[in-house]
Amino acid sequence: MPPKIRELIADLEKAGFVDRGGKGSHRNYVHPKVARPITIAGKPGDDAKRYQVRAVELAVEEAKK
Asked: At what angle do helices 50-64 and 5-14 cross, to 10 degrees?
């Protein structure tokens, strides 16, 4: 069972990412240690896509460095 979008957002916020807004269902999260923003698309209750889960995992790891 894939995680929900709300779980990915919680992981990003726990790692120190900040939502800088977006259009529609898109949210852009930025972190001072991560080179580019992470975009999460979808409603909070939607299942996350595999590529979204991977992008969040990589971004959280990069933020820890």
From this structure: 10
